[in-house]
Amino acid sequence: VHATQVLRNLFFEIESQILFAESGGIDVLVRIFGLANQKLGGQTKSGRELRSVWTNLVSILAYFSPVIRTKLVRSGVIDILCMLLSADDGEVVSNATQALTNLSTDADNVQLIVESARPTSLVQQLLSSTRAPYFLQEHTTLLLINLGLSCDQIPEAFLQYGGIEGIFNLIEETNIQAKPQFMWKIIYLVATLSRDELCRRELLEMGTLPLIEKAAAYKDDTLKQACDMALYNLKLNFVHLKAHKEKAKVKAEEGEIKKVIVEGDNEKGVMHRARVVGEIVNTEKQYVENLLVIVKVYEEPLTKLPKLLSRDERVLIFSIVTTLYTIHSNFLQKLQKTVLDQTPTGIISLGDVFKKELINELKVYRLYINNYDDSCDTLVEAMNKPAFAAWLEERTTQFKSKALASLLITPIQRIPRYCLLLAELLKNMPTTHPDHEPLSSALEQIQNIANYLEDEKQKAFSKTEIEQMQSKITDLNCDFTEVSWRRFIRQGTVLLDSTTTQEFRTKSNLSSKVQYIHLWLMTDKLVVSRAEKKSQKHKLVAIFEVSKLKISKLTVEADGITRVVLKISTEWGAFVVYVVEEDFLDDWEIDISESIEGKNKPE
């Protein structure tokens, strides 16, 4: 016990860890613990103390170096740690969980941990809040995040164990002011789980979205970033085909990341940055591998099978994936070289490599993002062809890859992931660090590109919706797409209330028999139409300048029925509308009010 305590204290110096590992100490450490643990057990005071100190020591060893993590794994430490997860001592379980979390930063170790520690047990460990200490919940959450990023068994475990409801309860019950660090970890776990369609659906049905939107308002940058990612994943309208359990493995980064201490720096910040750098490299590897699978396993073979998929269908589904693969495989080479070819002091200039090798290429994502919905729709339609569906299933099984739909969403998620990772790196980097300014500049540029891509997506969506409106209303003799800044906001059929003024009915040529009208709201215009009988087309009723409208919500009573309505006052008089679902009426009120105030106009 005392010898282990001495080693633990020594290991706070990275050089000590490296010397210890190079001298063969890892194997000795694991072997001696096995003998001592067998003799002492977990019930004696010395046994509990040994387990606690030893798991803490392994956690420290596993924190910094990929090389040391590899030696630990080869020594069989994963099985020992997973065995200790069932210990009665909360501190031992917490230390073992933290050690597994550190080991799981290398993608090669994920499946080994999942095979040794049952995922449902980890979910149960997280959600047993009545007996689990707070720090154990934190460590378990981080472990589940790391495992969930690469393994389908984690979302499946949450679904099997009823863990989605447990996550909802944790978010609802956690005092955000007292535990902001725990809250961002739980919400990041939600972001990870919501990449799985079944989990995403259940999270939405539980009502998780409003809770995360509320948490996003809390003034904590890390929490805000986690909320943004969770909201982004929860709101994505994507097609998810069931992925196979086996994942393409990403090799852990070889070599050491040397420490660099500058003025205002500290050991903890150095170690945390090293982990984030490792995650940047490993996730980039995984992303490039996913793009390669799309190109080589699916797209290129389909060019020779026109009977399965026409050229037009293929272009719509795969878009510019080949271009993205070229961009990111080149970037990955430069990124790895930058990390491995450090300066003698250990300084890595990641900011410069992002700025020189990647940022200028990212705007090409506009083409992929704008085409993504069409890609999903085309894939769904193609899946209705039995021959194509069978071919896809055969390829997925043969190459043990993710399902095609799961792969096609990865480019949508990549740029927001860069923002999160670089922000995390900067958070733990003093301003005196030589890479701080280049990284800050790179992050700002990537965020600007992310905003630009979102704006381009909204432009494309608006253009499509406006064109559909113009084709639907037969007598609409003007082109609303000519104004470049105009955005489409919403459309829908509403009911006219009997309190609508006669002036409005007369000027809009609507008889008292007309009960339904259709509203098309844009940033500066409100178009009103009505459906033609026995036709899918509409007739124009009126076009109003939004800035001249006035809106108010009222409660009216007619024929013994009380309902909430919207009164929209125009230069033609007022018309009063309502919908069956009052929530939709609230949405209309908010969107029209914001348009009147000019909030929906793009900057």
From TrEMBL:
Gene3D superfamilies with a match to the protein in the record: Dbl homology (DH) domain, Leucine-rich Repeat Variant
InterPro entries recorded: ARM-like (IPR011989), ARM-type_fold (IPR016024), Armadillo (IPR000225), DBL_dom_sf (IPR035899), DH_dom (IPR000219), FYVE_RhoGEF_PH (IPR051092), GDS_CDC24_CS (IPR001331)
One Gene Ontology term from the biological process aspect of the record: intracellular signal transduction
Any one GO molecular function term: guanyl-nucleotide exchange factor activity
Coiled coil feature spans: none
ARM repeats: 76-118
GO CC terms, sorted: cytoplasm
Pfam families on file: Arm, RhoGEF
Domain DH: 272-456
Domain of life: Eukaryota
Protein name: DH domain-containing protein
